[in-house]
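Budget justification note: compute hours in this period were largely spent on complex prediction jobs such as the one shown. Inputs:
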Amino acid sequence: MNGKVAKEDLDSRIFDTLNMILLIICTIVILVPLWNVIISSFSSGKALAEGGFIFWSPEFSLENYRAVFNDQGIWQAFFISVSKTTIGVVTHVFFCAMVGYGLSKKYIRGRKLYVAMGVITMFFSGGMIPTYLLIKSLGLLNSFWVYIIPALFSFYDVVILMNFFRNVPDSLEESAKIDGAGDWHIFLKIFIPLSMPAMATIALFNGVGQWNDFMTTKLYITDQSLYPLQMMLYEIIVQSQTQSMQNVGGSAVIETTTKGVQLATIVITTLPIVLIYPIVQRYFISGMMLGAVKE
Amino acid sequence: MDKLAVETSTGKHTVGPNGKKPIGQRIKEFIVDYRRQWEIQSMIIPGIIFMIIFCYIPIYGLTIAFKNYTVIDTLATAPWVGLDNFRIILSDKYFWDAVVNTLGISFLKLGIGFVIPIILAIMIYELNSGRFKKFVQTVSYLPHFLSWIVLGGMLITWFSTTGLFNQLLLSLGVISQPQNILLDAGKYWWIATLSDIWKEAGWGTILYLAIMAKIDPTYYEAAKIDGASRLRQIWNITLPNMRSIISLNLILTVSGLLGSNLDQTLVLMNSQNRDKAEVINSYVYRMGMSQGDFSYATAVGLGVSIISVILLVTANKITSKLNDNQSVL
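Corresponding output:
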């Protein structure tokens, strides 16, 4: 009997060790390439041209960042990215909370129709071209508001908030009503402060989506002064791709300069996300579960 | 009958012969109720208006798939052409190339990318040390938050002749000459699949881990007493408990077989690998946005979404048969 237990312990320990080793390899596979991008962005053009380093750069330099920051374009793009993300998130969360609060009241007239209309939008959409034609006829092409208005509403987020509001005890609303408060007052003064955790989760996912979104720009914006960072980075990538293909065996200098600029832009574009990442991490699980409850 | 009368909003009105109140009365009641609820209704109406404009008008706009729409037309004046656009699709070689690429990449993603998050989640779940667990989770979720543009830029750097990937292979002696595999069309499907797994596998574990956290620990204790090995416990306790979430995910993945990642394609596609990289989405984009053939592009998109809905329904039927007729959707 004792021998059996010991064998199991040994088996179990081998399992744990193997498991640990495999997971360490997984984290290395994720972290090393990212680390490589960061140190490459701080490398001189010469080091980039020669390559051949993984963990540490042979020659550090700030020239890539200097080149990027000297370009007025990046400041403009950064400004666009920040404003579209902040305005987009605040309006999206407020709009969805407002509709979700309304739909959380079971007694309202027409509720079945409203919900049915919403559910249909989760499964069917007009797709790329009809949406483009709509945006065009609304005059939103080459307008900053194309980042905000079409992104105001998502029925998925409405449902999540609606479920959250429903869990708030009715007594809160009733006592406020007795004190003579209207629905808008109750929503703004009682329910919004109460539902901050749910709204923060939605804000987080929506914010990452806004920051990372580039298709909206690609489809609807041709005015370069409205380009966010992602689109600017895309242009740099496309440009350096074409160059490197034309330059097979040709001038390596131009290629490495754009490469350095590209690397520095990648780091700058990602930095805000990486900075807020540890702060917002605790919302991930709650957020996924909010979504899962619905499914 | 009595019951029905009580359930109506005021409860005092007469009930018609077939259990319904006369239409006029119902409208009157509706208006009375609506006016009493106007404050709440005023919160919902903006959402409804939004849906009509931004969701239902584009759905109506799908009719251009059956029209010959040109820039000078409006949606209403464009002439109807019936199924002509769909007929052209059938003989469009480039479209079928895109279908082959989409399916190739999708099946690779389904074959590899579907299993890896499950395995990864089990591995993380089996970890004893809380701090290391937290660390692995933090690291593996991170790539999900990079945009495809950022990741595309990174991939181009990693795969360049002087980049990380070639350095590794050179030092391991796998290759003797550095080469940029992004320019090698034959490898594109693998690049698309593996980069997607690198980005999303960790994130894909969250839902599985949340489900696993709900498994009753006494199962494992009982299994341990019975002398079940760790792998046995995974096979007989963990996996069966994840059955419904796995089949739900599988249904969603199968219904998305014809969908593809447009961001990823646009950033990784170049003139060298286009033959293998063009997927349906990017083809719709190219036909519609670059070449301005709105009707044809819409027809392609519509056809593909109809097939996707059919796939969704079929996959749901099949898995519900396998799961003792319990439909997951």
